[in-house]
């Protein structure tokens, strides 16, 4: 028989094993918080069991062994219903990290490291919990007797499912059952004993029946022989537990009403690069359809009826295709938030904080491109909340707060936007200190700093080099990071706001678009050129006479609301010629920049348009101030501007 090429399943193995291990990490954090809950530990056990089975099926023996030992320890806690102590959670999390390392090494074709120390620690912990069933050196099966073929080559001892029955006339059923349990314990590791050991010893057996699983290097014939000598105990059945089959692709329910007896829809995993290519192709079709519509306008009006109707039909089909591809790219925010509990736990331990993290709305979906960009910024906000926001327990008690700090990550959908908030009940941010830090670093004049509103002062934390942290740690507080967070949020068309009260806490609010592939643009003209400004970053548009602009230190200022905004000429910023004959009254577009709102002077406004955003290729992606490019319906390409970078 031809051998099966398991390398074909490697991508599936890596993807699903990582999902199981990330979920397992989350379960372990919950387990530490809850102590011991049947549902959480059962779920953790299932994840470890799945990883073991998949690794064994792929022939990754060390990975399967390590996952097996982890499974044993979880099973021991599950059976004994003991509280899982912090040291055990540390050990189990270290094992999870090691298994993740194994999976990534397998993906890259590299060897895994030595895990003997970790295996020993797991076995010692298991021995303390269950001395009678802990791993011990076992005599190998006789050379003439082969182990069950199902476990060959996997590096794991065979497991047997054994069902036994004490004779109805036995005077001491508990003694007989316990004797069988003891005899089998001498052959290997006993798991899943039913009923529990206390009931077994007391003879509380339903019709004399009891069952267990035995992990042993002894052959089936030797196990049977060991049981034959126990009086009043009948071996009902003994069978080898086969290793898990290769994982099957996940299935999801089809959309729409469920029909009784209907087969579930089959699904496949698709590489993200292919989704990107599909989206790019659908976007090109949209642009081509718009171009056909423009060209059709040159056809005499009397002959355009059929053409217009067919172009409308084509446009509807293409828009539907584009929407379906976009839907396929949508990803639950849980992809980002699932790793936060583990991160919060590790940061809190290192900084000696007591923190409770709650996450709501993780089922809300976003474009995968946005999720990918926000992974690190969200983790940075969590680090800052715990490292600099939440006070040590003793300090919190002195302030009348509960010793355990609270961090909340809340997500909700608001029309065509997603609102993501990271909130803590810590010490809050000091706007005056931020003003002083900005002045000390020469980023603002004292007068400009004092003129900032409370909200604008808090946003100074997002300027490069501004930090009010009293200590610099390896977690955060080096005066870098928040500027990168703000840039990352704005790069996907989002905005960042900060609210804070000294002694009460801080809230970071991220407003995000559902997708970055389609954007609303305000089209502006400078001379003969047209540029696009993302509407999400536009605060307003005003027409104002140039002669009436205020001036300060050779800078022009535009009255807007209750403030005076610095004015920049878009023609000068882009070094393109503007209209020489522009009238004295011209449009000014108010946009968000790094230091707050600014006004951009343009020659003309050309309306709004929904466009398909296309990424820039090299070397254009290196040009400051360019966020992307699109093609209008008339076939003309235009650049989309990134104003904050344009003003740097």
Descriptive overview:
- The chain has 648 residues and is of the alpha+beta class.
- The chain folds into 5 domains: 6-129, Four Helix Bundle (Hemerythrin (Met), subunit A) (Up-down Bundle); 157-240, Alpha-Beta Plaits; 272-329; 333-429 and 468-513, Histidine kinase-like ATPase, C-terminal domain (Heat Shock Protein 90); 518-646, OB fold (Dihydrolipoamide Acetyltransferase, E2P) (Beta Barrel).
- It is 40% helix and 24% strand.
- It has 20 helices and 24 strands.
- A 6-stranded mixed sheet has the order 16-20-21-19-18-17.
- A hairpin with a 2-residue loop joins strand 18 and strand 19.
- Helix 1 (10-34) crosses helix 12 and helix 12 (340-350) packs parallel to helix 13 (368-389).
- The model is unreliable at 136-155, 244-265 and 471-480 (pLDDT under 50).
Based on the model shown, name its key terms:
single chain, 648 residues, alpha+beta, Four Helix Bundle (Hemerythrin (Met), subunit A), Alpha-Beta Plaits, 5 domains, 6-stranded mixed β-sheet, 5-stranded mixed β-sheet, elongated
Percent helix range: 40-55%
Inertia-based shape: elongated
Q: Based on DSSP secondary structure assignment, what is the total number of beta strands?
A: 24
Summed up, the domain count is 5
* CATH topology label of the largest domain: Heat Shock Protein 90
Q: Which CATH class of the largest domain is shown?
A: Alpha Beta
Rounded mean pLDDT score: 80
Strand order of the largest sheet: 16-20-21-19-18-17
Low-confidence stretches: 136-155, 244-265, 471-480
> What's the total helix number?
20
Q: Which structural class matches the secondary elements?
A: alpha+beta
Task: Tell me the CATH architecture of the largest domain.
Answer: 2-Layer Sandwich
CATH superfamily of the largest domain: Histidine kinase-like ATPase, C-terminal domain
Termini Cα gap? 67 Å
Task: Provide the gyration radius in Å.
Answer: 33 Å
Query: In what range is the share of β-strand residues?
Result: 15-25%
Oligomer: single chain
Biggest sheet record: 6 strands, mixed
């Amino acid at each position: 028989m031809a051998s099966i090429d398991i390398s074909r399943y490697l991508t599936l193995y890596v993807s699903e094993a990582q999902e199981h291990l990330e979920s397992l990490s989350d379960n372990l954090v919950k387990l530490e918080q809850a102590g011991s809950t049947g549902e959480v530990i059962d779920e953790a056990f299932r994840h470890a069991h799945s990883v073991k089975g998949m690794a064994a099926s792929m022939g990754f023996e060390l990975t399967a062994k390590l996952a097996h030992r982890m499974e044993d320890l979880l099973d021991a806690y599950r059976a004994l219903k003991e509280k899982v102590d912090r040291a055990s959670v540390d050990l189990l999390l270290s094992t999870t990290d090691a298994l993740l390392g194994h999976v990534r090494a397998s993906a890259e074709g590299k060897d895994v490291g030595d895990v003997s120390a970790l295996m020993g620690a797991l076995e010692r912990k298991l021995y303390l919990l269950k001395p009678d069933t802990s791993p011990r050196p076992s005599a190998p099966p006789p050379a003439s007797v082969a182990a069950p073929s199902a476990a060959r080559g996997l590096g794991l001892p065979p497991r047997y499912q054994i069902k036994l029955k004490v004779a109805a006339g036995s005077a001491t059923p508990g003694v007989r059952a316990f004797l069988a349990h003891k005899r089998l314990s001498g052959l290997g590791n006993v798991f899943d004993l039913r009923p529990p050991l206390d009931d077994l010893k007391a003879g509380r057996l339903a019709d004399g029946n009891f069952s267990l699983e035995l992990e042993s290097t002894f052959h089936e014939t030797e196990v049977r022989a060991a049981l034959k000598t126990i009086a009043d105990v009948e071996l009902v059945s003994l069978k080898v537990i086969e290793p898990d089959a290769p994982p099957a692709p996940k299935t999801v329910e089809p959309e729409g009403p469920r029909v009784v007896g209907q087969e579930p829809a089959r699904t496949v995993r698709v590489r993200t690069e292919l989704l990107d290519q599909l989206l790019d192709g659908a976007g090109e079709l949209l642009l081509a359809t718009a171009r056909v519509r423009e060209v059709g306008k040159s056809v005499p009006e009397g002959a355009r009826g059929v053409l217009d109707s067919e172009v409308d039909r084509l446009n509807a089909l293409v828009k539907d295709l584009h929407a379906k591809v976009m839907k396929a790219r949508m990803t639950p925010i849980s992809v980002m938030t699932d790793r936060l509990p583990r991160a919060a736990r590790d940061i809190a331990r290192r900084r000696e904080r007591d923190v409770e993290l709650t996450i709501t709305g993780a089922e809300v979906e976003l474009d995968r491109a946005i999720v990918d960009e926000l992974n690190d910024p969200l983790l940075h906000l969590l680090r800052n909340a715990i490292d600099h926001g939440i006070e040590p327990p003793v300090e919190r008690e002195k302030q009348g707060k509960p010793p355990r700090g609270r961090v909340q990550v809340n997500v909700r959908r608001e029309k065509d936007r997603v609102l993501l908030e990271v909130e803590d009940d810590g010490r809050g941010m000091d706007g005056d200190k931020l003003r002083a830090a900005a002045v000390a670093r020469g980023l603002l004049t004292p007068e400009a700093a004092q003129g900032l509103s409370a909200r604008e002062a808090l946003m100074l934390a997002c300027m490069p080099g501004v930090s009010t942290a009293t200590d610099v740690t390896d977690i955060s507080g080096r005066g870098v990071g928040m500027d990168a967070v703000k840039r990352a949020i704005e790069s996907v068309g989002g905005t960042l706001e900060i609210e804070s009260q000294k002694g009460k806490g801080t809230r970071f609010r991220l407003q995000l678009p559902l997708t970055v592939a389609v954007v609303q643009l305000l089209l502006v003209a400078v001379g003969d050129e047209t540029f696009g400004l993302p509407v999400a970053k536009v605060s307003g548009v005003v027409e104002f006479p140039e002669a009436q602009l205020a001036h300060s230190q050779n800078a022009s200022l535009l009255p807007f609301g209750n403030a005076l905004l610095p004015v920049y000429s878009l023609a000068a910023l882009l070094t393109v010629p503007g209209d020489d004959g522009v009238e004295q009254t011209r449009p000014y577009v108010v946009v968000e920049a790094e230091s707050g709102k600014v006004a951009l002077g343009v020659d003309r406004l050309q309306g709004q348009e929904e466009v398909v955003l296309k990424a820039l290729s090299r070397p254009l992606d290196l040009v400051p101030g360019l966020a992307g490019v699109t093609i209008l319906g008339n076939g003309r390409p235009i650049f989309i501007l990134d104003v904050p970078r344009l003003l740097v």
